[in-house]
């Protein structure tokens, strides 16, 4: 297992993350976020076996702004790059339709630390 951590030094609104791999995308990995470096929250999960690895069903519709998606789409694993957008349209709709007016959406994307 390889773990990579990044300290952005101050809180940022993370609206997208792009990752390039030297080879194929790993079978499973997670993106975690934290404000304080101690308490970590899943931001996004990727796996070819979401239930087996993370215990959640793959590619489920969101029911809350704070829900985490486990992406298992084949296109995610056939390339050497992954691009993750935090403010997908379904999440924005659940947040009331406007990032600027939704404290929940603003909270969801806020992070100082990222762990992969």
The coarse silhouette is globular
Number of helices: 4
DSSP summary, beta strand count: 7
Q: Strands of the biggest beta sheet: in what spatial order?
A: 1-7-3-4-5
Which band does the percent of strand residues land in? 35-45%
Range of helix content = 10-25%
Query: Span between N and C termini?
Result: 11 Å
Helix/strand order = EEEEHEHEHHE
What characterizes the major β-sheet?
5 strands, mixed
- Which structural class do you get from the secondary structure elements? alpha+beta
Q: Low-confidence stretches at least 5 residues in length (pLDDT < 50)?
A: none
The overall average pLDDT, rounded, is 90
Radius of gyration: 14 Å
What does this structure look like?
- It is a single chain.
- With 116 residues, this protein is an alpha+beta fold.
- It has 4 helices and 7 strands, in the order E-E-E-E-H-E-H-E-H-H-E.
- The strands form 2 sheets. Strands 1-7-3-4-5 form a 5-stranded mixed sheet. Strands 2-6 form a two-stranded antiparallel sheet.
- The longest helix is centred in the last third of the chain and has 7 residues, at 103-109.
- The protein is globular.
- The termini are close together.
- The relative contact order is 0.31.
Notable traits:
116 residues, alpha+beta, two-stranded antiparallel ribbon, 4 helices, globular
Task: Explain briefly what this protein structure is.
This protein has 116 residues and is an alpha+beta fold. It has helices spanning 50-54, 74-77, 89-94, 103-109, and strands spanning 5-13, 16-20, 28-34, 41-47, 70-71, 81-85, 110-115.
């Amino acid at each position: 297992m390889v773990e990579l951590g990044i300290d952005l030094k101050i809180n940022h609104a993370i609206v997208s993350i792009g990752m390039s791999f030297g080879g194929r995308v790993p079978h499973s990995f997670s993106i975690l976020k934290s404000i304080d470096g101690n308490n970590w929250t899943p931001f996004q999960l990727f796996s070819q076996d979401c239930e087996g690895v993370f215990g959640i069903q793959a590619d489920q519709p969101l029911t809350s702004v704070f829900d985490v998606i486990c992406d298992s789409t084949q296109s995610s694993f056939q390339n050497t790059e992954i691009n993750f957008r935090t403010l997908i349209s379904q999440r924005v709709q659940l947040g009331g339709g406007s990032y600027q007016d939704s404290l929940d959406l603003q909270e969801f994307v806020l992070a100082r630390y990222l762990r992969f």
